[in-house]
Write a structure and sequence with these properties.
two-stranded antiparallel ribbon, FMN-dep_NADH:Q_OxRdtase_AzoR1, alpha/beta, NAD, binds flavin mononucleotide, 5-stranded parallel sheet, globular, Flavodoxin_fold, Rossmann fold, oxidoreductase, EC 1.7.1.17
């Protein structure tokens, strides 16, 4: 592995509506602590998408996305300012940590709102002869996912629109090194609130050594 010329930066996104007793936040805390231990010189930027939700993109935002920069009016510039800032933050990160519970088989809506702000033609992806190419080259990603029901690796696999969706959309914008840490059955087993299962802890301990491309 070649040394990164960049100061390590972890961009952590939380999205559970619960700020107390949240399994996904607990997982992300462990992953962040492990990352900090591996990167003592690193910087952590946290964004709590649940308590400070990104605005939904609207007609003005979309008009701004498709207007050449030199033609942006002050109103369109304002409508795309949040997208500009979120993309800039994503592009300077060396690790992106997304903590997400499954809500109705997919991501919580504030996380979807963040995705809608950052997946943007000419900024995070481009089309070359009709083929998409991602423009976000720097961060690797870790997904900390929690599922209320057990069985998404098995009988509920077709209902998992959380992990495959996040992997696809991150791949689309160029992030290919993605690792997943997940727990299932959190709704059925309140005892899990007492702590993170040993197998998941082992998985966390294995992170940030070698890149894995999905
Ligand atoms: C609004 C809502 C929708 C949910 N939808 C699902 C679901 O579709 N499938 C599932 O397995 N669990 C579902 N759950 C359970 C959560 O995924 C589970 O409790 C998870 O641990 C919540 O994350 P948190 O502990 O970080 O808050 C849902 C929970 C809530 C609050």
């Amino acid at each position: 592995m070649t040394a990164s010329p960049y100061r390590p930066m972890l961009l952590r996104l939380d999205s559970s509506a619960r700020t107390e007793g949240s399994h996904s936040r607990q997982l992300a805390d462990q992953i962040e602590a492990h990352w900090r231990a591996r990167h003592p010189d690193g910087r952590v930027q946290r964004r709590d998408l649940a308590t400070e939700a990104p605005p939904h993109i609207d007609a003005q935002t979309i008009a701004g996305f498709y207007t050449p920069p030199e033609q942006l009016s002050p109103a369109l510039r304002a409508a795309t300012a949040r997208s500009d800032a979120s993309i800039a933050e994503l592009k300077v990160a060396t690790t992106l940590l997304i903590a997400s519970p499954m809500y109705n088989f997919s991501v919580p809506s504030p996380l979807k709102a963040w995705i809608d702000q950052v997946v943007r033609a000419g900024h995070t992806f481009t089309l070359e002869g009709g083929r998409p190419r991602g423009l976000v080259e720097r961060p690797s990603a870790v997904l900390a996912l929690t599922y209320g029901l057990p069985g998404y690796g098995d009988q509920l696999a077709t209902l998992d629109h959380l992990r495959p969706y996040l992997q696809s959309v991150l791949n689309f914008i160029g992030i290919r090194d993605i690792q997943v840490v997940s727990t299932e059955g959190t709704a059925a087993d309140p005892a899990q609130l007492a702590g993170i299962p040993a197998a998941v802890k082992e998985r966390i301990d294995s992170l940030f050594s070698e890149p894995v491309t999905t």
